[in-house]
Amino acid sequence: MRVILAEDSTLLREGLVRLLLEEGHEVPAAVGDATALLAAVAEHRPDVVVADVRMPPTHTDEGLRAALDIRRRWPKTRVLVLSQYVEKRYATELMSGDVEGVGYLLKDRVAQVSDFLDALDRVGAGGAAFDPEVVRQLLARTSHGDPLATLTPRERDVLDHMAQGCTNASVAAQLHVSQSAVEKHINAIFEKLGLSHVTGYSRRVLAVLCYLGS
User: Fold this and answer.
1) Same domain flag for 85 and 178
2) By residue range, what is the domain housing residue 45?
3) Helices (H), 74-131
4) For 144-172, how does the pLDDT look when each residue is reduced to its tens digit (9 = 90+)?
5) Phi, psi (5° rounding) for residue 131?
6) N or C: which end of the chain has fewer CB within 10 A?
7) Sign of the CA dihedral 171, 211, 51, 120?
8) pLDDT tier at 87, thresholds 50, 70, 90
9) Can you give the CATH number for the domain in which 149 is found?
10) How many CB atoms lie under 10 A from the CB of residue 62?
């Protein structure tokens, strides 16, 4: 893959460049601020962008706002946010639409280099890679507390089976209920978790990540 990095820490940036090159990826640009990131994406049109959230000049949310801009202007470019922080306002926007080819990892929770590389591969292939803690914080913010605590025992059973990768038909068969009943439970889960506004399969992904992070 062709990967552009945006990270204001020189040591981390150069370390990631070396890691990616060793893994066989191309790194046409590695930059330290959001303005340079947008210019590099416009020039090189990479497969994936790996961006920090807080970069110069204000060190607040420049990287995440640039990531959203990239998603709008170059929708074929995948975006993996790698940060120490959950920047809630723009992270919610990033995760409210189609999350295919989108990821958000917390630096302090990436336990192994292989975890980062696996996430990069998933995002590059059009999948999603979200730290469950990111999802938990965002849903807790929008739902005023722990949203999982509002689920009924049956809804938690359904969500547990969803987390195991079961289809609606499989969940219905294992819980001995109709598929329409499962669909009603899933819609209730999305409503209680504050995911009704999220489109398509993205809701299912985020609901499962919230559950896994509990």
Assistant:
1) no
2) 2-130
3) 88-96, 113-124
4) 567 788 889 999 899 888 877 788 998 99
5) -65, 130
6) C
7) negative
8) confident
9) 1.10.10.10
10) 22
